[in-house]
């Protein structure tokens, strides 16, 4: 595999091995490292801005038309004044991305009682819960929508998003925030853990559990987010500068379908979605986020996902991957394979030969190679399913993505390269919460008590 590698923009010599940072004179190396660090910090800042503001270019996903940078929340219907919130704890505007529920009979009830949902997957516990917000929102946190709008209807119902890696912490958190819960109340649940941990959850929280099928939850979730949150989905353009790397891709509710959803959690589920109620899981793969974490923890000293990802962002995969130029001495022009394409992931790490036996490889380089290997593979698979079902938009969900530049660049490159620009790779702000969001909304789950 590894046909769709994305490599760093440093130029490689056509008939030699690629330049290596370690061979660069120390002074220049220092400058290069500093520059890379600064670039990474800017990237983080851009990602935060992306999630909390609406100052990015908007290109309509269906028509391709570019719209002015209007505010996201303006597109939401106005809410009616708050009903009694006596039972509810109120809170300040969260610092993380949230969704303000639109006014409709369905959501009105969340003003009066708490609604809590959890998606317990193979790795992470994702919680979505409602809260009432008592203060007006600062302009920035409102995705740019005007102060007037914020004052108008006073209290708002927010949907909050939080993830846990630990069951005890998750339970304790809910005990703290879900203060108005009483016996007979329901916690909405999805994911494998909604079976595995049902008894603990019910016993500890003293509530009943209502289960929604994982795939149904994903579709409900993505449908709600795409149709409610104007700036939910975006594209990633690695070669652009600054904010232009990201473009929002709003889409009219009646044009959302059909699309392909590739959910990258511990493993991968691929769904062809024709409508909120008509969908099919057309494929899957075991080479997902769990693989990146598992192999990453075997092969590097990283202590957690964030460290591993950060390592990958510093690494140079060309030290561990065999490129086309390592085999051909340059490009393989007859097949259109560029010299810097990955020919074999981690192929430079084999210790079966005398010449390579004693070679040491940097963990950063291994982490980068691993991330590229997993993302390339997913990108190509997504493209193949997209083509098979003639779908023009592929939404990527799941906590693996983490809006990471390398991951998004690799996925987008693969889709764009193989489909010759016919299929678009799209990302979601609430990528990791599709399942939890869907079960939050589902009224017809199965009660377990
Ligand atoms: N803080 C984190 N801790 C663990 N895994 C993380 C973290 N952030 C991102 N991930 C990635 O997200 C994957 C889990 O994604 P998720 O969508 O929550 O799947 P699941 O439902 O299987 O838990 C992990 O396998 C890992 O690759
Ligand atoms: C079993 C799962 C649906 C569980 O979801 P997850 O916890 O990974 O989000 C998923 O891991 C998966 O689809 N795995 C791939 C299985 C396959 O080879 O089709």
UniProtKB/TrEMBL annotation:
<feature type="region of interest" description="Disordered">
    <location>
        <begin position="1"/>
        <end position="26"/>
    </location>
</feature>
<dbReference type="GO" id="GO:0005634">
    <property type="term" value="C:nucleus"/>
</dbReference>
<keyword id="KW-0808">Transferase</keyword>
<comment type="pathway">
    <text>Cofactor biosynthesis; coenzyme A biosynthesis; CoA from (R)-pantothenate: step 1/5.</text>
</comment>
<dbReference type="GO" id="GO:0005829">
    <property type="term" value="C:cytosol"/>
</dbReference>
<dbReference type="GO" id="GO:0005524">
    <property type="term" value="F:ATP binding"/>
</dbReference>
<dbReference type="InterPro" id="IPR043129">
    <property type="entry name" value="ATPase_NBD"/>
</dbReference>
<keyword id="KW-0547">Nucleotide-binding</keyword>
<keyword id="KW-0173">Coenzyme A biosynthesis</keyword>
<protein>
    <recommendedName>
        <fullName>pantothenate kinase</fullName>
        <ecNumber>2.7.1.33</ecNumber>
    </recommendedName>
</protein>
<dbReference type="GO" id="GO:0016791">
    <property type="term" value="F:phosphatase activity"/>
</dbReference>
<feature type="compositionally biased region" description="Low complexity">
    <location>
        <begin position="8"/>
        <end position="19"/>
    </location>
</feature>
<keyword id="KW-0418">Kinase</keyword>
<keyword id="KW-0067">ATP-binding</keyword>
<keyword id="KW-0963">Cytoplasm</keyword>
<dbReference type="GO" id="GO:0015937">
    <property type="term" value="P:coenzyme A biosynthetic process"/>
</dbReference>
<comment type="similarity">
    <text>Belongs to the type II pantothenate kinase family.</text>
</comment>
<dbReference type="InterPro" id="IPR004567">
    <property type="entry name" value="Type_II_PanK"/>
</dbReference>
<dbReference type="Pfam" id="PF03630">
    <property type="entry name" value="Fumble"/>
</dbReference>
<dbReference type="GO" id="GO:0016301">
    <property type="term" value="F:kinase activity"/>
</dbReference>
């Amino acid at each position: 595999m590894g046909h769709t590698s994305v490599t760093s923009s440093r130029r490689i010599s056509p008939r030699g091995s690629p330049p290596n940072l370690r061979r660069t004179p120390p002074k220049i190396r220092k400058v290069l490292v500093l520059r890379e660090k600064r670039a990474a910090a800017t990237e983080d800042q851009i990602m935060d801005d992306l999630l909390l503001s609406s100052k990015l270019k908007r290109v309509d996903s269906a028509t391709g038309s570019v719209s002015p940078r209007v505010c996201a929340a303006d597109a939401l219907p106005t809410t009616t004044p708050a009903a009694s919130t006596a039972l509810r704890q109120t809170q300040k505007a969260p610092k993380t991305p949230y969704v303000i529920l639109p006014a409709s009979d369905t959501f009105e009830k969340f003003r009066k009682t708490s609604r809590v949902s959890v998606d317990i997957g193979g790795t992470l516990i994702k919680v979505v819960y409602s809260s009432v917000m008592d203060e007006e929102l600062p302009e920035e946190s409102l995705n740019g929508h005007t102060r007037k709008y914020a004052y108008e209807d006073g209290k708002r119902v927010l949907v909050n998003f939080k993830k846990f890696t630990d069951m005890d912490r998750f339970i304790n958190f809910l005990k703290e925030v879900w203060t108005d819960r009483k016996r007979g109340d329901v916690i909405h649940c999805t994911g494998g853990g909604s079976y595995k941990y049902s008894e603990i959850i019910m016993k500890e929280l003293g509530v009943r559990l209502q289960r929604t099928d994982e795939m149904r939850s994903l579709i409900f979730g993505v449908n709600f987010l795409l149709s409610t949150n104007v700036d939910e989905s975006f594209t990633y353009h690695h070669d652009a500068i600054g904010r232009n790397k990201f473009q929002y891709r709003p889409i009219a509710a009646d044009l959302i379908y059909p699309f392909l959803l590739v959910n990258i959690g511990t493993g991968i589920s691929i769904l062809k979605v024709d409508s909120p109620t008509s969908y099919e899981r057309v494929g899957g793969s075991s080479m997902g986020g769990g693989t990146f974490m598992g192999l990453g923890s075997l092969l590097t000293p990283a202590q957690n996902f964030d460290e591993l990802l950060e390592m990958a962002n510093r690494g140079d995969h060309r030290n561990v991957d065999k490129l086309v130029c390592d085999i051909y001495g340059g490009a393989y022009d007859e097949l259109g394979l560029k010299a810097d394409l990955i020919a074999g992931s981690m192929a430079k790490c084999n210790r079966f030969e005398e010449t390579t036996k004693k070679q040491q490889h940097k963990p950063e380089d291994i982490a980068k190679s691993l991330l590229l290997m997993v993302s390339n593979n997913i990108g190509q698979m997504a493209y193949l399913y997209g083509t098979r079902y003639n779908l023009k938009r592929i939404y990527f969900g799941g906590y693996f993505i983490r809006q990471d530049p390398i991951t998004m660049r690799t996925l987008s490159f693969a889709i764009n390269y193989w489909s010759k620009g016919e299929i678009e790779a799209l990302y979601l702000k609430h990528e990791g919460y599709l399942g939890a969001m869907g079960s939050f909304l589902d009224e017809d789950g199965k009660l377990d008590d």
